[in-house]
Design goal:
Length: 668
C-alpha cells in the first residue's frame, strides 16, 4: 500500500491529506512527473511525501504548487493505475465530492486561509477493480481509522451494493441539507437523497428573507421571532456572499394598524434578537425622501427597519457541499421509495431517477425532511402514521421590471390583514410576494394562478404611484409551505414555527419527521433535530454542537462587511471580466470565484458564452462542484440567469451540460 501525504509545509505539522493506492509502483516518481512546477501561486508550500510508512517517506517540496495541481496529479495517477490494471483506459469515477474534514477546526481554518479547502472537495475514486481514496488525515488515530472505513462505505455505495450510514435523510431542501451538514461535521456518517434537484421543492420558492417575521409578533410567537432574529447575523456571518442586509420601509396606512402599534412592534423587533451589526429602526417622512417618487402622496409617514436577504437555493447547495466536504454522501435525483425497520436498523430502498436503477442502504436513524411531501413519505415510504397534521399552503411571487431606483424594500399591509413585500431583485427587476392559499395536489405541480397574479398586482398598485399590471409580469414562481396544522382558520395565520416528531421504539431505529419551519431557522432546526437523534446514534468524535454558527459555508470565508473588498480583489485579478459579472459571481460563489475563474488571463480562457454572462467555465464549475445536471438546475436554482436567457439559449445550456457530464464527471 503506497501512501502519499500532503502537508502545508511549516504551517501544519501533520499532513492534511493522504492518498492511498494499493500496489502503486514508484508513485512518487509518477507524481513528480505529473505535477507542474509552479512558483507563482499564493497557496504556500506543499510538502509531498510517499512511502509505506512515515519512517521511510521521501519528501519533495514544491514552492507554491497549488494543492489543486497535486490533486489533479493524484487523479492522473489513479487513471494510469486503473489503465495498467485493466488494460484499457479508465478514468477514475468521482463519487463522493467531499473533503473528509474530521480534523480540528484550527487546521480547517488554516486551509480556508490558504485557499486550499475548496480546491478539491474530496476525492473518492473507484476505478474498476480496486479502490482509491483521499481522506483528510485526522488528528486522532481512531478518527483516522474511522474515516477510512467510511470512505470504503461510500465506495460500496457508488458501486451499487449496500452501504451503511449512521443517519439517512430524505429531502434535499434547506432542512435536510442543514441537518446533513451539521451531522457530518459532528462526525456521523450521513446519506442524503432528493428525488429531484437539491432545493427543487419549497426551498427555492421562498421570498428569500432571513427575518424574524414582524407579523408573527401579532400571534405572540416570541420564541420563533427571537430565534429567527438571532439567526440573521449568524447566517450573514457564515455566508456573507449569499446573505446581506436589507432595509424595509413600512408605510403607515391610516385605515389599517395604528402607527403606535407599528412602532411598538418594531421596538420589540429591534430588541428581541441580539442585533449587533444591523441598523436599527427609524421613523421616516415618506414624501421627503426617495419614496416620494414611488408611493402615492397619501402615504406620508412610515418606518424603516432591517432584515436580511438570502439566495435560498444557493444556501441549500452550499449546505449540501459543506456536508459533502465533511464526508456526507449527497444523492440528488434519487428517490427514497421505501424504508423498513429490521433488526434494529433501517433498510432504505433508493431509486436513481436518471437510470431507474434501485439499490439499498442501511442507516441507524432516518430523517423525513421531505417538506410538503412529508405526509406522502410517512404514508407510502416509511408506512408509519403521520405524527402531526400538515397544512399545505401555497405562496406565489411575481417578478416585474424594476419599479424604482433605490435599494430599500417595501413591506405593505393589505386590508385582508396580510402583508406583502416589494424587493429589488436581480439588479433589473422587482419581486412582489406573496400569497397564502390552502393547497391540495402534488406540490411539484404548484403554479401561480391568474387570480394570485392579479391579487399581487392589485395590492401593490394600492400603494404605488404607477400601477403594476399583470402584463408587466416577466416571471412567476410558487412554492408550498409544509406547515404544522395548528387549527388556524386562515392560511396566513397557521404557525411558521417548526415541529420535530421523534419516533424511537425500544426495539427499533429512530425516525425523526420535520414539519414546518423557515429558511431563516434551518440551522437551529438542524441543531434541535440532532439533539433529539443523538441518543440513537453512535458515539463519534467530531465538531461540538453549535459549530455551524461559526464555520463559514463554502465561499463565505471573508468578513461580513467584506463583500466589496472581495469584488475589488476579483477585479484586480481578472480585469478582463465585466465588473457586473464579477459582482454576480462573487455574490454567488464568494471566495470560490477564484476556483471558478482559475488561472484565466483573458475572456477566451473562460470558454463559450451561452447567453447573458454565463460562460463554459461557470457551467463546468456548477456541474463539477454543485451537482447541476440540467439547464434548469443552472438558470433557475444555482442562478437566476433564466430571467435574461431565451428558450434557445437555455436549450443550448442543456446540450452543453449533456456533453460535460459523461466527459468529466461520471457520477455525482
Ligand atoms: C411562498 C413562500 C415564501 C417563503 N418565504 C420565506 C422567507 O422569506 N423566509 C423564510 O425563512 N422562509 C420562507 N418560506 C419557508 C421556507 O421556504 C420553507 O420552510 C423551507 O424551504 C422548507 O424547506 P424543507 O427542506 O422542509 O422543504 P423542501 O425545500 O420542499 O425540501 C423537501 C425535499 O424533499 C424531497 N423529497 C420529497 N419526497 C422525497 C422522496 N420520497 N425521496 C427523496 N426526496 C424527496 C423534495 O424533492 C424536496 O426537494 C417561504 C415558503 C413559501 C412557500
Amino acid at each position: 500500500m503506497a501512501r502519499v501525504e500532503i502537508t502545508v509545509a511549516g504551517l501544519v505539522p501533520a499532513p492534511v491529506a493522504a492518498v492511498e493506492v494499493p500496489g502503486a509502483p514508484a508513485l512518487n516518481a509518477k507524481l513528480q512527473h505529473l505535477i507542474p512546477q509552479r512558483r507563482d501561486a499564493t497557496s504556500g508550500l506543499l510538502a509531498f511525501s510517499s512511502g509505506g510508512r512515515h519512517s521511510d517517506r521521501e519528501t519533495v517540496v514544491w514552492g507554491g504548487t497549488p494543492i489543486a495541481a497535486v490533486l489533479d496529479a493524484a487523479e492522473g495517477v489513479a487513471t494510469q493505475l486503473a489503465t495498467d490494471r485493466t488494460g484499457k483506459p479508465e478514468r477514475p469515477v468521482w463519487t463522493v465530492p467531499a473533503w473528509r474534514t474530521s480534523m480540528g477546526e484550527a487546521t480547517r481554518r488554516l486551509l480556508v486561509r490558504h485557499r486550499l479547502r475548496h480546491q478539491r472537495p474530496g476525492l473518492s475514486f473507484r476505478p474498476l477493480g480496486f479502490s482509491f481514496y483521499l481522506g483528510i488525515r485526522c488528528k486522532r488515530a481512531n478518527a483516522r481509522i474511522r474515516t477510512r472505513s467510511r470512505r470504503l462505505a461510500g465506495l460500496m455505495d457508488t458501486a451499487g451494493g449496500n452501504s451503511e450510514y449512521d443517519l439517512a435523510i430524505i429531502g434535499g431542501g434547506v432542512n435536510g441539507c442543514g441537518i446533513a451538514r451539521d451531522a457530518a461535521g459532528r462526525g456521523w456518517r450521513v446519506f442524503l437523497c432528493d428525488q429531484a434537484d437539491l432545493a427543487s421543492g419549497t426551498s427555492s420558492a421562498s421570498t428569500k428573507l432571513i427575518h424574524g417575521g414582524l407579523r408573527y409578533l401579532e400571534h405572540y410567537e416570541f420564541r420563533l421571532v427571537h430565534e429567527a432574529l438571532m439567526e440573521r447575523e449568524v447566517l450573514w456571518g457564515i455566508a456573507p456572499h449569499i446573505v446581506w442586509p436589507l432595509r424595509f420601509i413600512l408605510p403607515h396606512h391610516k385605515k389599517l394598524r395604528p402607527a403606535w402599534l407599528l412602532r411598538l412592534g418594531l421596538y420589540i423587533y429591534d430588541h428581541l434578537g441580539g442585533r449587533k451589526h444591523l441598523s436599527p429602526t427609524r421613523s421616516l417622512r415618506l414624501q421627503d425622501g426617495p419614496s416620494r417618487s414611488v408611493l402615492k402622496p397619501e402615504f406620508t409617514r412610515g418606518f424603516e427597519y432591517s432584515d436580511c436577504w438570502v439566495e435560498d437555493s444557493r444556501l441549500v447547495v452550499l449546505n449540501a457541499r459543506d456536508a459533502a466536504e465533511h464526508g456526507a454522501t449527497i444523492a440528488p435525483r434519487t428517490a427514497c421509495v421505501s424504508a423498513e425497520r429490521d433488526n434494529g436498523t433501517w433498510w432504505i430502498t433508493l431509486r436513481d431517477e436518471t437510470t431507474g436503477g434501485q439499490r439499498r442502504i442501511r442507516a441507524q436513524a432516518l430523517v423525513n425532511a421531505a417538506g410538503p411531501w412529508v405526509a406522502d413519505v410517512a404514508g407510502s415510504v416509511v408506512r408509519a402514521n403521520l405524527p402531526a397534521a400538515v397544512r399545505l399552503v401555497q405562496g406565489s411571487h411575481v417578478v416585474v421590471p424594476r419599479l424604482y431606483e433605490h435599494d430599500s424594500c417595501y413591506i405593505f399591509q393589505n386590508a385582508d390583514e396580510r402583508i406583502f413585500f416589494l424587493i429589488p431583485y436581480e439588479r433589473d427587476f422587482t419581486l412582489i410576494g406573496t400569497t397564502d392559499l390552502d393547497f391540495e395536489g402534488d406540490p411539484a405541480d404548484v403554479r401561480a394562478s391568474p387570480a394570485e397574479i392579479e391579487y399581487l398586482c392589485h395590492s401593490a398598485s394600492a400603494y404605488l404611484r404607477k400601477p403594476v399590471t399583470p402584463d408587466m409580469v416577466v416571471w412567476t414562481y410558487s412554492g408550498v409551505r409544509p406547515l404544522v396544522d395548528d387549527g388556524s382558520s386562515a392560511a396566513q395565520e397557521a404557525t411558521r414555527d417548526y415541529v420535530l416528531k421523534l419516533d424511537a421504539p425500544a426495539d427499533g431505529p429512530a425516525l425523526l419527521s420535520v414539519f414546518g419551519g423557515k429558511i431563516t431557522t434551518y440551522r437551529r432546526l438542524a441543531e434541535s433535530a440532532l439533539a433529539q437523534l443523538q441518543p440513537h446514534l453512535p458515539v463519534v468524535s467530531g465538531q461540538a454542537a453549535g459549530w455551524t454558527a461559526r464555520a463559514a459555508l463554502p465561499g463565505g470565508d471573508f468578513p461580513m462587511n467584506g463583500f466589496d473588498a472581495q469584488v475589488a480583489a476579483a477585479l484586480a485579478r481578472y480585469p478582463f471580466v465585466a465588473p457586473s459579472t464579477l459582482r454576480r459571481l462573487v455574490r454567488a460563489y464568494g471566495t470560490d470565484v477564484h476556483e471558478l475563474l482559475g488561472d484565466a488571463t483573458c475572456s477566451a480562457n473562460l470558454g463559450a458564452v451561452f447567453g447573458a454572462d454565463l460562460t463554459e467555465a461557470e457551467l463546468r464549475y456548477l456541474v463539477r462542484w454543485e451537482w447541476a445536471r440540467s439547464a434548469e438546475d443552472v438558470v433557475w436554482r444555482r442562478s437566476k440567469l433564466g430571467l435574461r436567457l431565451s428558450t434557445d439559449q437555455i436549450a443550448g445550456i442543456d446540450a452543453a451540460i449533456r456533453q460535460m457530464v459523461p466527459e468529466r464527471l461520471a457520477v455525482s
